[in-house]
């Protein structure tokens, strides 16, 4: 296996960040520790230097604290208050939201490609819905749905979908418009109905765009799900843990949750990447010997377009 | 049939007729139900449905007329009619079903609330938009620009930092918010930092693409002119990157507003649109929540369009505008 040329520089940067972390941690924590000592708080340490790594709410937690925090929040794996189950709930809401967003996005995209009038009437508001801080609607939407008996994970999935449908709409619309005019002409020569054109030409052509859009939308949906959990009464999920620990001022736990949700985001996007490679093998193997000529040509066109 | 009439309505008289009838029906119902306190009968609900159908059908016909207009204001007409249709239908439905205003306020109620509490909301907006979003936006974008310049200049930095920037784009930034608010404090600087971090990574990735995706021919030309590094950046790389930079700037306006508002969910000093939204949503004061959302949206849209206008002024030479 070929080693990526990025590996060494990335490691150097990571090491530099780690090496800078300790001095920085001491620099910002020692004044806090000194103040705590001056006020005579009962601390298990004597000097400010020692206390800097043991503060209850440090500005930057020490690696030892983070490690312990991970231990506390990860184990036992099946505890309802541990990260794994909550992360799974949030991931589930995100994925359901993404699928809902996919359905809505496809509907809008097909409408916009099929009818300029539809585009004229709705596109400005679809764009505006993005310049609007949509997240502001989350608390209200959840209370509203709760009034009509919709509770639990579903409102969060709806909010995730609401935030994620835009990149999908735009991406799919771009993809549906992407077949080159020659191919569209060919469909016309074959006397293909609009349905057939969509099924045999436009949909396949939009697949690569769909996956690119899904990657962006996945992050957006995760943000939506977390915000929805934060701003509502929820019993499970990363957002609920964030809100809880934010109220309890447990800084170390908040750091641990932040890092875990970062990992969750990266994993979810990696999932889309994996699906993309699984479902569009001709793109991965573009230029390979085993690729049928037609598919290789298709992927080249996509690469150019 | 006068020429004016024909110019306005063209072959679309049926569409305009349906649109007018639909709006008339809905408005008539709203007027009739203005002071009522009992739900409407099912016949009246059917009437609302008919009105809505008429508006949508009419709109679908009428919109064809505006498809090819070059004037952006006239081209906006169908979109404006769509918004109006949704608002009027929502008002009629809410009145017909007598939904309690504590749950979903009618659009007219929201508008009157907006006028009532505009002073408070404007103060909130100043805190959220100017102090938090704008400061964070400017800092984050400039830092992103500088980082992209450095990364594009030194291959080592590109290899070491760019993969991390790509990785960071899949991280849910909201999770940063509570940590940063705890770390920096509940006043506006913590939210500005959140905004700066949010807009930083798209800026780096986009600008870097603009600085490096350059046709080899142009680079060869620079070389044959014996242009040094600085000249290359001034005359080739930066102009080439401008459209990409503006893309990131436009994306950033949205992210900045969201970042500032979400940041306030985790602690604010008693002011700010996000703070107001959270407090009032908890008290079922949804007319104020909607008013705050309207204020935030209007500012968000204006900001986005301002950047778009700057883009057209500065990159008018670019292919996409010719």
Automatic annotation (TrEMBL), chain A:
InterPro entries: MetI-like, MetI-like_sf. The keyword Transmembrane applies. SUPFAM superfamilies: MetI-like. It is a multi-pass membrane protein. It is found in: Cell membrane. GO terms for biological process: transmembrane transport. The keyword Transmembrane helix applies. Residues 87-276 form the ABC transmembrane type-1 domain. It comes from the Bacteria. The chain crosses the membrane at residues 7-28, 83-110, 122-145, 157-176, 209-233, 253-275. GO terms for cellular component: plasma membrane. Belongs to the binding-protein-dependent transport system permease family. This is Riboflavin transport system permease protein RibX. It comes from Meiothermus taiwanensis.
UniProtKB/TrEMBL annotation, chain B:
Residues 126-307 form the ABC transmembrane type-1 domain. One of its GO terms (biological process) is transmembrane transport. One of its GO terms (cellular component) is plasma membrane. CDD domains: TM_PBP2 (cd06261). It is a multi-pass membrane protein. The chain crosses the membrane at residues 12-34, 46-67, 73-94, 129-155, 161-181, 193-212, 244-267, 288-306. Keywords: Cell membrane, Membrane, Transmembrane, Transmembrane helix, Transport. InterPro entries: MetI-like, MetI-like_sf. Pfam families: BPD_transp_1. Belongs to the binding-protein-dependent transport system permease family. This is Riboflavin transport system permease protein RibX. The gene is ribX_1.
């Amino acid at each position: 296996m070929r080693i990526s040329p990025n590996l060494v520089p990335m490691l150097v940067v990571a090491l530099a960040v780690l090496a800078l972390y300790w001095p920085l941690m001491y620099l910002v924590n020692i004044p806090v520790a000194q103040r705590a000592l001056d006020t005579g708080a009962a601390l298990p340490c004597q000097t400010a230097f020692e206390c800097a790594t043991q503060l209850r709410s440090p500005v930057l937690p020490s690696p030892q604290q983070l490690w312990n925090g991970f231990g506390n929040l990860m184990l036992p794996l099946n505890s309802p208050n541990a990260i794994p189950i909550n992360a799974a709930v949030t991931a589930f809401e995100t994925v359901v939201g993404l699928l809902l967003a996919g359905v809505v996005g496809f509907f809008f995209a097909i409408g916009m490609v099929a009818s300029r009038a539809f585009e004229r009437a709705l596109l400005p508001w679809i764009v505006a819905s993005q310049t609007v801080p949509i997240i502001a609607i989350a608390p209200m939407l959840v209370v509203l749905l709760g009034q009509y008996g919709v509770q639990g994970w579903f409102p969060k999935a709806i909010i995730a979908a609401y935030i994620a449908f835009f990149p999908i709409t735009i991406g799919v619309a771009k993809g549906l418009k992407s077949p080159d005019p020659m191919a569209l002409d060919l469909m016309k020569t074959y006397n293909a109905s609009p349905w057939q054109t969509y099924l045999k030409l436009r949909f396949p052509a939009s697949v690569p765009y769909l996956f690119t859009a899904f990657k962006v939308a996945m992050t957006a949906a995760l943000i939506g799900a977390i915000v929805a959990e934060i701003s509502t009464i929820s019993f499970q999920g990363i957002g609920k843990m964030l809100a809880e620990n934010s109220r309890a001022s447990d800084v170390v736990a908040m750091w641990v949750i932040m890092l875990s949700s970062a990992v969750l985001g990266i994993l979810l996007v990696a999932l889309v990447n994996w699906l993309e490679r699984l479902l569009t093998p001709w793109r991965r193997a573009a230029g390979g010997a085993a690729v049928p000529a037609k598919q290789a040509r298709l992927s080249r066109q996509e690469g150019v377009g | 049939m006068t020429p004016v009439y024909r110019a306005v309505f063209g072959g679309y008289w049926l569409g305009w007729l349906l649109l007018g009838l639909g709006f008339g029906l809905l408005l008539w119902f709203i007027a009739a139900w203005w002071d009522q306190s009992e739900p409407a009968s099912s016949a009246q609900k059917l009437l609302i449905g008919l009105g809505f159908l008429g508006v949508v059908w009419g709109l679908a016909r009428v919109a064809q007329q505006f498809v090819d207009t070059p004037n952006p204001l006239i081209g906006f007409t169908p979109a404006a009619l769509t918004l109006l249709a949704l608002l009027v239908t929502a008002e009629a439905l809410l009145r017909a079903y007598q939904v309690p205003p504590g749950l979903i306020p009618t659009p007219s109620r929201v508008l009157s609330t907006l006028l009532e509490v505009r002073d408070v909301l404007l103060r909130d907006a100043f805190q959220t938009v100017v102090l938090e979003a704008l400061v964070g936006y400017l800092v984050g974008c400039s830092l992103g620009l500088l980082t992209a310049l450095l990364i594009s200049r030194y291959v080592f930095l590109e290899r070491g930092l760019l993969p991390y920037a790509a990785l960071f784009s899949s991280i849910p930034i909201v999770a940063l918010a509570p940590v940063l608010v705890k770390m920096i404090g509940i006043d506006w600087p913590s939210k500005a930092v959140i905004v700066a971090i949010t807009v930083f990574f798209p800026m780096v990735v986009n600008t870097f693409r603009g600085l490096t995706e350059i046709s080899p021919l142009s680079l060869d030309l620079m070389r044959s002119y014996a242009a040094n590094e600085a000249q290359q950046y001034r005359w080739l790389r930066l102009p080439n990157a401008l459209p990409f930079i503006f893309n990131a700037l436009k994306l950033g306006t949205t992210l900045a507003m969201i970042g500032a508002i979400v940041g306030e969910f985790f602690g604010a000093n008693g002011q700010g649109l996000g703070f107001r939204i959270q407090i009032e949503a908890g008290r079922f004061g949804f007319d104020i929540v909607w008013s705050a959302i309207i204020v935030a949206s209007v500012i968000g849209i204006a900001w986005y369009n301002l950047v778009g206008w700057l883009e057209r002024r500065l990159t008018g030479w670019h292919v996409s505008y010719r």
